[in-house]
Amino acid sequence: MEFDDGRYYASRGETDQFYFYENRLSNLTKDDLKIEVQDKNIVFIDGLLDKTKYGFTRSIRVPPNGKVDEARAVIRHGNLTITVPKAEGKVPEGNPRIIEIDT
Prior knowledge:
Blueprint: E1 2-4, E2 9-14, E3 18-24, E4 33-37, E5 42-48, E6 55-61, E7 72-76, E8 79-85, E9 97-99, E10 101-102
Parallel strand pairs: 7-10
Antiparallel strand pairs: 1-2, 2-3, 3-8, 4-5, 4-9, 5-6, 7-8
């Protein structure tokens, strides 16, 4: 699934082993972002635009068999990719935590 309004691009997909979520966040670095697992299997992306007071929040609902406690995030050239490993069955709800962003 893809979304593109000219300013923000997002897509999601899956392989046999992972769910992945891609976001184009031009001109943002890992220092501009906070990625957090909160309620159940929901991942929140918070960011500041252009080092101003204006920010944004995006949320991603991960399917019940997503291992959110093992989620990883990487940002390169303004493209943020979050990968979540799959389990064989439903996994317990994830604990609230910050997902560190690699570059």
